[in-house]
Predict the 3D structure of the following.
Amino acid sequence: MKPEPLSLPPSPNWYCARCSDAAPGGIFGFAARTSVFLVRVGPSAGANPGAPPFRVVGELVGHTERVSGFTFSHHPGQYNLCATSSDDGTVKIWDVETKAVVTEHSLHQHTISALHWSPTVKDLIVSGDEKGVVFCYWLNRNDSQHFFPEPRTIFCLTCSPHHEDLVAIGYKDGIVVIIDISKKGEVIHRLRGHDDEIHSIAWCPLSGEDCLPLNQEENSEPDIPNGKLVTETPITKGCYLATGSKDQTIRIWSCSRGRGIMVLKLPFLKRRGGGVDPAVKERLWLTLHWPNNQPTQLVSSCFGGELLLWDLTQSWRRKYTLFSASAEGQNHSRIIFNLCSLKTEDDKQLLLSTSMDRDVKCWDMATLECCWTLPSLGGFVYSLAFSPVDVGCLAIGVGDGMIRVWNTLSIKNNYEVKSFWQGVKSKVTALCWHPNKEGCLAFGTDDGKVGLYDTCSNKPPQISSTYHKKTVYRLAWGPPVPPMSLGGEGDRPSLTLYSCGGEGIVLQHNPWKLSGEAFNINKLVRDTNSIKYKLPVHTEISWKGDGKVMALGNEDGSIEIFQVPNLKLLCTIQQHHKLVNAIVWHHEHGSRPELSCLIASGSNNAVIYVHNLRTVLESNPESPVTITEPFRTLSGHTAKVTSLAWSPHHDGRLVSACYDGTAQVWDALLEEPLFNFRGHRGRLLCVAWSPVDPECIYSGADDFCVYRWLTSMQDHSRPPQGKKCVELEKKRLSQPKPKLKKKKKPTLRLPGKQDSSIVTEDESSRETSGPVENGVSDQDGEEETQEPELPPSPVVSGEAVSCIAVSLGVEKSKVTVNSKATLLKKEPPKEKPEALLKKRKTRSMLPLSTSLDHRSKEELHRDCLVLATATHAKELNEDLSADLEERFHLGLFTDRATLYRMMETEGKGHLESGHPELFHQLMLWKGDLKGVLQAAAERGELTDSLVAVAPVAGYSVWLWAVEAFAKQLCFQDQYVKAASYLLSIHKVYEAVELLKSNHFYREAIAVAKARLRPEDPVLKDLYLSWGSILEKDGHYAIAAKCYLGATSAYDAAKVLARKGDAASLRTAAELASIAGESELAASLALRCAQELLLVKNWVGAQEALGLHESLQGQRLVFCLLELLCRHLEEKQPPEVRSPSSVYHQWATGSEGNLVQRVTGVWRNTFSVDTPEQCRAALKKLQDVKYPSATSNTPFRQLLLHVCHDLTLAILSQQTASWEEAVPALLQAVLRSYTSGNFTLMQEIYSAFLPSGCDYLRDKLGDLSLATAAFKSLEAFFIYGQLYEVWWSLCGPGPESSIWVKSTVPAEQRAPEDSASAEDTEPEAAAAQPRSSLPSGPGLRLSGESERLLSACKELFSERHASLQASQRTVAEVQETLAEMIHQHQKSQLCKATANGPSRDDPGQEAEQAPSRPQSPSREESNAPLSLPELTRRLTEANKKIAELPDSVKAWPFPDVLECCLVLLHIGSQCPGAVNPEMQQQAEELLQKYGHTRAYRRYCQTLHT
């Protein structure tokens, strides 16, 4: 059985009473998120010698939400059984050996909060939930009972180890009850004393109350009434119980007496070290463990992560011993949640603890010292980075706000991890080590922070004063560029730090002065390259190893290559059409230095592209080059690619991480998938190749895990497809699903790099760092640390808030119309309420005065008297003033001052009754308009009518009122109306800015267009801003209109092309052509044609190419491609032909051979007739370079590349440039040969060289520079015909009569094993043993075959045979060295496992089988080659290759030994057909150069 990959597991779950447990024999388990991780502890763990004896051995996967409880069965014979409870409402019973569910139940209706497997009843599992319901489940009889002892929230429960019916339950309010399940859950004792949550309950391991020698009468508390009196029975007699509570006390209870006998108060210990921010105030969690063999001692947690061993014999002195008192930093740094004991196979008594510091620690109970620590991760793993200086140090960026540095080369501890948290305070999304400075680690966070850590010290990090507005996605060290590079040599650093953020900019930070301002490199790029159009949104940055070239990946899928020192744009790679997530340059220290120009890239579409930039970097073009064809294409993933890494040990080997849940290792040069790792349960976010182990890879994902895995141990070679992919998706669906928070208003999620897939179909933006699993963001998925009783409070940054209500004008108008329509539909107008409204009486303006005029007659008479007195009195005395104040309504009949008092009283009444508009009207009556406006503004009660009358009070008052009303409208989210009021006072810029800031772009543009000058920069800024938002949301057509409005046709064409379909590309090409962007128009038209080529729409493809004159050469290529496809299709049976092809009329003709038809169509349709026209087309096509083919190159792509070469050959032939025609024709042949498509190679020869190569020889002459290419072309021609002769002998077909004449019936000469030209590999076909071939008395070669065999002497080139033998020797030595390394690693792995696999283990034989020598020679197998011998062979082979002339090495040549074998087989089938001299020459070549492994067996077969 293969060992589990080494992993850093997720953190144990917090705030659970029992989330970890251990079984006798050495297996420990802890709940982490939705699963349980199992750890083998003790000698059987198979750890490295000297390393701590533990190993993570597996995971129990099945729950869909957080696991809240975990417990083992402690009964002999079933130590392999355990139980889990989860927030998904289920209790599952597992077998840890098979990691499968035995049974489960869903009896609880509420969240399960406590679980325990009875230590006395082997099949009883007890669980309790937050509503106070207890369920007892008997596994063997599948029966259950439920009890409801108390209507309180259960926090913990523990079954008695002495009596099978007793269960102690602790509640949230501090109550502890002991129930008897045999009496329907009757409460035996109700223990009162705690006044807060009960976190833990522990029974004394010994029964009876004699184990604690204390005077219970003196040291016990006063009697506490616990309900009804219970007589002493054997059930309740003699048993102690310990409880730990949030109230900071531990209480010991006597079950026989039903009362507390001891109280232990937690001491306040001085914090020693610790890794927590002192400003963070933690709640207490008090967990207990009563050791089995020490009834007078009790282990408890404390405030800050310490463990205490209490001496219960001296409770009055509060005597305790601190765990790990002598060692500094060995304790937990934060509160401890769970404790459990474990007895190993060598009888060691251990204690295991889980804590909020995310560590699992193991303690030796004999010494109270920490034995080992298992670190864990509390968030998504966003970044992995190996230090280039301190080899083996792996930095891990995690979403829990901490950086881990893992010493992966530590021999004494496999999990030597150091954590850094100071100054981080956010998810760590990017990491990058300094290339030269030890311990210098740069980090970036999701809140835009960039900092530098010195991992060799304990100092806090340096933080850059310049923050990104959004998440930091990538960090890279590179040479300084202006303005930072302008200083002297000693005034500037040799390397600066570059950071790429979610807002799309790249900043350059000075590591010597992070407090200074960072520089945006966009300004330098724009100035150096004189760019007028909008720069793309950057999403990725990568520097080449030599620091001379920088690559920037963009949101639109393009990759730009810049050259230092001024960031001159060398080329643009237009390959991806979605957001670029990863770019990596190949290393420079391999055996092939030219590979250092390879650059691999991955994006939101699942394809990985590799480009070879050697030509561009060496030529240093004056103007930027556009690359549209990849060097290699790696297809197989089914989701976005998030991370890439080249192997530092191999040439061209790449590993990719993907959202499909797998990591894939590729041979990028051969386009072959090699190994696929499927160990994660989430989407992969990062991957890193070990710098010391060629087979070891580290990967991180959103399952909170980092895995270390070996390529050779993987069962799969390619990513899952179809059903397998569905199964993997189901596996990931078992991830946690936190409940979505209810929100009053729907919010628009901003697009992001990691989670942009849920925003638009195009996944076109990269903003938030966290990926989204099952519709839940990383914010929800990671924050599992909230306390159970407190609702999680999401932290939302100001940037996110300001961008939530993104709304387009077109959408807003639609929403308004729809809502009105819905309202009318649901609530049609009713006549009765409207009639009642019409009849309703208008509210009185002076209701208080009116009511006073309806009092009794006496009061009215009194009013008259008071009024008369007031009007005739010369002066008002106190009594009269009091009367008038009391009867304020008389102000209507007296002077103005009294009237004002009456109106003031009436106004207050209106305000108190909720009618401010009436108050305003009264104030207007007074003539105090300014006061009315001020009062209304203060109360936020300005109205349209008030503002309308404001001019009466003056111009300044009106301006002030309009501005105040606009502010009020903004608070009421009426931004458009507010802007209209600002326009009324001629504040146009303020109105436009208000609309823009609240995303009313359509309205803002309308206002600006109507009121501002056309050349005003505000208008262009509006267009560009709206266009950017539309582009992120995937509304490309409207975004293009915005860019056109901003007179940026280039950006309009680029954004239209982002959709990637043929219609969008054609429109974009036409738009670019109209705007005069000829280069862009040409590239887009070519892309459109290639898209149409995929669906075989030949007519549409030619129309697209016709959009631009510079594509005339490509039109010729597509014409040849169409004719060739038609030619190949005509040779297929009618039932196999594709009916969907749309051919031109000129492609249906059949007169003449293929070359004649091609030149005829060129002449008649494309007007390419004269040599000058051919030369012009040839010059354009020669600038296009396609990469070489591999066996994995798609057939359609292969055909296009072959037709490009054939077009060059025909055009060169038309201009009589034979020295160019021969290499072009040879290139087409080589593409077919290297891709393994023998049929296509033969079709090329039959169509372009129907009469052989003599015609070309005559045209070239003997002194031509293309002689070497011609010899290679002629050799491949003979090679192909040689195989056709041989296959005709093996299985005569319809066309075999050209080569073979038969004298016996066909049924008597049927071959034992026939193969088609397409399905048989040349070497495999040639390697059939001689004895297995049919004898040939009835077969005779034709004259044509005999002439061909005589020409085979051209294939027997001594120099080419020497070159090929030397190349095979080099490859064989390299393979042997790799095998030796692999065997050494495997032997080390066997030593690391527990005594290695057994001798009769079939898996051992299967693993050792590949290491056996392939040769049957016993002498070889017993004498393996030494390293000096391999080095000698390698040196000799390289020396021979160097001595050969360049003409031999310039062009590929058919395998000489392969041709010798085929010729000898033909001679064996048709004796006398092969010239004896040639046969002897073939045997000599085989004997001289056939010493490599590939030909050794076949040579031995021939000579036996």
Remarks:
- The chain has 43 helices and 59 strands.
